[in-house]
Amino acid sequence: MRKAVLFDMDGVITDTERFYVDGMLDLLKRNGIHLEPTDLQEFFGSPLLHNCTVLQARYHLAKTPQECMDEVVTYRDQQIQIGGLQPMDGVLELIRELHDADVKMAVASSSTMDNIVHNMETLGIKGCFKALVSGAECEHGKPAPDVYLKAAKEISMKPEECVVIEDAYNGVIAAKTAGMYCHAYVPPQAYRQDVSLADDVITSYRDVTVEDILANN
């Protein structure tokens, strides 16, 4: 029986995943490389430093991976400054409903811990989660299952007792490799990517209940 929910963050709780994708595209464009979002699917959901390390080597960028990452983070922060940190539609209500139903929850994100804590505090939901886990602090980032296995352990749950909500190609692979049920969250504004390994697809949080999320039917 599934008893816990593990949330990815960017693109699942916060409307920020697209800023990382656009930031990588902007980084490459300023170095004379023009790609489309679909060209970056292999990076969706993976730790940013890993992504920038691969991009720097592949396209022979005249800067370090850390400098590439700093530029993408600056782009992200500029976009958030323009419109504020926005939650995905309906997610705050769902998280509070799960919390009120005594469902254990954790955030398991490829973002840094500082960013996770800041975002959860900004949205006023940090107290709803039993654990916050950063893939940047795991030995292997997504698509490896480490961050989800660590999150399950931190809230004293077995993998088969956990449900994951993911928006990214690599995140879905990580969840399924961890042996967990996975909802792919695909809102209308999301960049298209392959989430076919997920157990089902959610297009709006407003269309699902606590029972739907736990998927114990």
From TrEMBL:
Name the SUPFAM superfamilies on file: HAD-like
* Coiled coil stretches, renumbered: none
Q: Name one Pfam family in it.
A: HAD_2
Task: Tell me the superkingdom of the source.
Answer: Bacteria
PANTHER family, per database record: 2-DEOXYGLUCOSE-6-PHOSPHATE PHOSPHATASE 2, PSEUDOURIDINE-5'-PHOSPHATASE
For this protein, the record's NCBIfam families field holds: HAD-SF-IA-v3 (TIGR01509)
Q: Please state what the protein is called.
A: HAD family phosphatase
**What is the species listed in this Swiss-Prot or TrEMBL entry?**
Dorea ammoniilytica
Starting at the broadest rank, the lineage of the source organism is: Bacteria, Bacillati, Bacillota, Clostridia, Lachnospirales
